Amino acid sequence: MQIWRNHAANGRRLATAALAIVLMTSVSGCGTDRIKTGSIGRTSSGKSIETMSTGELRGTSARLGKAYAANPNDKATAIQFATVLQMDGNAEQSLAVMRKLAIAHPKDRQVLAAYGKALAANGQFEPALDAVRRAQTPEYPDWRLMSAEGAILDQTGQKENARQLYRKALDLKPDEPSVLSNLGMSYVLEGDLRTAETFLASASRQPGADSRVRQNLALVVGLQGRFDEAERIASQELSPEQARANVAYLRSMLAQQNAWSQLKAQDGAKSATN
C-alpha cells in the first residue's frame, strides 16, 4: 500500500519528516518525487503510478524490467522503469537506469531532466543541478526544467532561488499545476502551511492537475489537523483504504512529534529547577 512519503505548529523539522514519507515523491520525489520533469506517470494500463499499491508497483516494475532488459536504450521504457523503481523505493537502481540512458542520450532534454531527478532522489544535489542546467537552453527556456531546478534548490535550502525559478516557470506556463504544487511544497518546507495550502488549492483546481498535486494538498490539510478533509481529498485519487491508511499514518506521526515535544519541554523544565 502506498503511504505518503517525497510542518505545521512544530515547524521545519516536522515538515521534513512529513516530506520524507509523502508521495512523491517524490519523490520525486519528492518526492519526494516532488520534481515533475515530464517523465511518464502512467503505465500502459492507463493507471497513474502515484496511485498504485505496493503490489501493483512491484508487478509493474517486473514487467517494465523485462522490457528494459530487451532494449535498455529505449527512452520511454527506461524513464518509466526508473520512475516505478523510484516510487517502489529502489532509488539506487533507478539512478543506474537513468545514468545508462543519459550516456546513450547525452543531449536529450527529457532524459537529462529525469536523470537529474534520479540524482536528487539519491541526495546527489550538485550533479542533479548540473544535469538539469545542461538540459536547459537560454534561447528556448523550458518551464519544466526551471521547476525541476527549483525543486532541487528547495531540497538544499535555497528557497528564495527556488521560488524565483518557479515564478519564471509560471511566466512561461501560467497556472501550470505542477509548478504551483512545487511552489506550495516550498512553503511546506518552510513550515508556512497556510501559504502552502493557497498554492496547492490553486494547483488542484487547474485543468491537468494530477494525483500528486491533490495528494500534496491532502498532506498539507492533514498537517494542519483537518484529518477528515484530508481523507476526502486523498480519496479522490486513492482507494478508501489507502486514504484512511495515509491519514492514520499522518495522525500517528503528528502524535509522536507532539509527544517528543512534550518530553523535551518537561526535560527543559526539570533542568531549569535543578
UniProtKB/TrEMBL annotation:
Gene3D superfamilies: Tetratricopeptide repeat domain
Listed SMART domains: TPR (SM00028)
InterPro entries named among the record's database cross-references: TMTC_O-mannosyltransferase, TPR-4, TPR-like_helical_dom_sf, TPR_rpt, UCP035836
Domain of life: Bacteria
Record key words, sorted: TPR repeat
PROSITE patterns: PROKAR_LIPOPROTEIN, TPR
Entry GO MF terms: identical protein binding
TPR repeat residue intervals: 143-176
Designated name of the protein: Flp pilus assembly protein TadD
Species of provenance: Aquamicrobium defluvii
